[in-house]
Amino acid sequence: MSSSKRASTMPAGPKPPTSLASTLIIADNATLTGTNLITIGASTIVHPRTRISCVHAPVTIGSSCILSERSSIGFQSSPSGEDQGRGVVIENGVVVEIGAIVEASRIGEGSLIEVNAKVGKGAVLGKHCKIGPLCTVAEGEVLPDFTVVFGNGQRRIDSSGAQELKLKMVGRQVEVLRKLIPSNLAKFQ
Amino acid sequence: MSKKPAKGEYIETDTGNKVSRKCQIVGSTNIILGGKTIIQAEVIIRGDLIRTLPSSRSASSGAAQSNVAVAIGRYCFFSTGSALRPPGKLFQGQFSHYPLKIGDHVYVGPSSVVEAALIGNHVHIGQGCVIGKFAIIKDFVKILDGTIIPPNMVIPSFSIVGGRPGRVVGEIPEGGHEAFDLRELYKTIKNS
């Protein structure tokens, strides 16, 4: 056990400034990096190995969101315009699945970003959008409410009217995950 | 005890599992490895997502509820960056995760994400695949690189599956099932 090896795996950077709700569940080995403000709302779940980066711009996450393992939230380069100055804003009830990369300016309420999907820098997603697995949304693209991106980038508008049910389901999922994932809020405050 | 083993990339268990020191296993008490399974670096296995809804069968028999979240058979191989996660759904108004069961000789390619309910024996999953929630994959199935298996899909035995969304595009030819044996692959992973 060489102590130098251990130290190299844990870069001792300064903690980013955060504004975290007290009912947030954030796993011990999630990573928050950068110097801008990270705001996370009530009852949100941050899984282990989630990366939230505020190196280039702030990150604001609403309440009852689920951010899965290995997902990456936040700009990976400097904002290229004044409208991107607010950084990433994720509204309430958004689910980000495993390995997704989110650099959007805004993700509307109740949206679902599936496994390994990528939302480009400055994109604006309306409410209840769904980005399918491995799908991409280009930089700066604007998607209206209820847009579904699927397959090889095909688009359609979801008119099923199931958005209330979906939000309820996310709420139930959050309730269960609250019990399963040990939170270490103090580490990030 | 007296001789300290050399420190390699893999931790070898008594049953021959080789687990990378760099893998990211959460909730290891709820994971069963059948033996001779290889888990490479940066593999995520979510054992903490256990079933929270008591199953009707165990409740009636009064047996102690097993907390297995991920059960893996023998000679499985999980490549770098893959992720295993038990699927979750809403059932009778309550959300719960359900166990992820994997048979023997299952290969999961690099950066694939598996949220299936059941994977049979001798299954080959390529690179960058996404196996949707509650998918059921039977024996001797080959899933091509970059395939997206939609949630709840059932894939019959001896199928070749590819595309987005995944469709059965072919059949394993006669005699082709020998290529699924992972014993040779297991031997190539050495603790250097």
TrEMBL record, chain A:
GO cellular component, one term: dynactin complex
Biological process, per Gene Ontology: mitotic spindle organization
GO MF annotation list: dynein complex binding
Record's keyword terms, sorted: Cytoplasm, Cytoskeleton
Database matches in InterPro entries: DCTN6 (IPR027777), Hexapep (IPR001451), Trimer_LpxA-like_sf (IPR011004)
Record Pfam families: Hexapep
Main location: cytoplasm
Transmembrane segments: none
Domain of life: Eukaryota
Location in or out of the cell: Cytoplasm, Cytoskeleton
UniProt similarity note: Belongs to the dynactin subunits 5/6 family. Dynactin subunit 6 subfamily.
Function: Part of the dynactin complex that activates the molecular motor dynein for ultra-processive transport along microtubules.
Protein name: Dynactin subunit 6
Organism per entry: Coleophoma crateriformis
From TrEMBL, chain B:
Compartments it resides in: Cytoplasm, Cytoskeleton
Family classification: Belongs to the dynactin subunits 5/6 family. Dynactin subunit 5 subfamily.
Entries under Gene3D superfamilies matching the protein: Hexapeptide repeat proteins (2.160.10.10)
UniProt keyword annotations, A-Z: Cytoplasm, Cytoskeleton
A Pfam family annotated for this UniProt entry: DCTN5
Lineage of the species this protein comes from: Eukaryota, Fungi, Dikarya, Ascomycota, Pezizomycotina
Keyword Cytoplasm recorded: yes
Protein's UniProt name: Dynactin subunit 5
Segments passing through the bilayer: none
InterPro entries: DCTN5 (IPR047125), Trimer_LpxA-like_sf (IPR011004)
CDD domains: LbH_Dynactin_5
Naturally occurring in which organism (per UniProt): Coleophoma crateriformis
One of the record's GO cellular component terms: dynactin complex
Keyword Transcription regulation annotated: no
